[in-house]
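Lecture 7, part B: from sequences to assemblies.

Below are the input chains for today's worked example.
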Amino acid sequence: MGLSVVAISGGMDSCVTLAIASAGGPVGGLHVKYGQRTEERELRAFKAVADHYGVESRLVVALDYLKKIGGSSLTDESRPIPRTEPRSGGVPSTYVPFRNAHVLSVAVSWAEAMGADSVYVGSVEEDSSGYPDCRAEFYDAFGAAVEAGTRPDTHIRIVTPLISMSKAEIVKKGIELNVPFGLTWSCYEPPVDEKACGLCESCRLRIKGFKEAGARDPLSYAAMP
Amino acid sequence: MGLSVVAISGGMDSCVTLAIASAGGPVGGLHVKYGQRTEERELRAFKAVADHYGVESRLVVALDYLKKIGGSSLTDESRPIPRTEPRSGGVPSTYVPFRNAHVLSVAVSWAEAMGADSVYVGSVEEDSSGYPDCRAEFYDAFGAAVEAGTRPDTHIRIVTPLISMSKAEIVKKGIELNVPFGLTWSCYEPPVDEKACGLCESCRLRIKGFKEAGARDPLSYAAMP
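Predicted structure of the full complex, as structure tokens:
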């Protein structure tokens, strides 16, 4: 298999995706910062995970303008991070407008310049917060745009191995692949004493996933839902 | 008509596109720098053109990572800018891998955050250098990704009014709309004594367009093809 680019946020899903991709061949690790509250913590998780998998080729990109554009509680610290159940009312305020298109565009430009033939993204559609840019439909459409918008001899597949898995299935898959879940960070809030908040949608989804998988989450939480 | 976002490089095509869009309603002007050689000159053209059209809402974004990713003679100063005829051999070295997907992604994120309902881009397919991300096929596919990847109540049209026009038709359209062509910059090289090189593909296309339209180009050139 040829070279792949893997988008690695530093969360559990991207880490399982990296485990899957790196089992198949060499990978380049892409990390995107976009002015989110947990930028520093996520970058640390990216480095730890990339070190663990021996990823030598790395690209860290800062999309500071996404914070300037705003429209999301993840990048606007004057808006609270909701502590509600996932999917409790439409698209949540943590949605960053069209963010994943930026991540994919960087991944595809890098892949085309390096001659990689696939881009792996750990998005999850079903067991998620309901972001529109995490749906299979979006990735399919974007894949067609990649085929049309790159050189005639460039063919880059967008691979989303977790898209239709439940969070519990992802945990099980990760355990099967010896994924170092303790190195990852999923919480939308910066750590307090190295603990995740336990109450944001992202923590709730993760905690539920480990619980349903009957597995122990190595992270510590300040509270439990 | 609602609010539109217009991608304004500062070249003649984006200026004609701005004239068309601003005739229809209020616009936000987006300028993207990406480490290209003419970054400074293009930003100056953007400001002049935006001032001319009274664009108050502006967003200037630096995508420095596109230079880091490389793969193009526009961003890599160790590679010469070709001085050949357009379309003289496949996709030229001035192609920046998947660049327009980045421009569109920023425009769409900004449009969604502001509640704009369209994004205007001045890409030209026929009379062009043959970049894959300037083709109607790419914009159609990307439009489908925008519809799938944004909020259910967000509907942003990608509008490419020049996509199937010849360069001469664009010049004629611009003259009809009183476009200030003297404020624009098309050359791939930085100015020398405020003159464009006259020999790069972009200059050649522009010079040919004005010639075929029987019009005078207000810019000065160091050489003529």
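Note for the exam: The first helix of chain A runs from residue 12 to 24. Keep this in mind when comparing with the next example.
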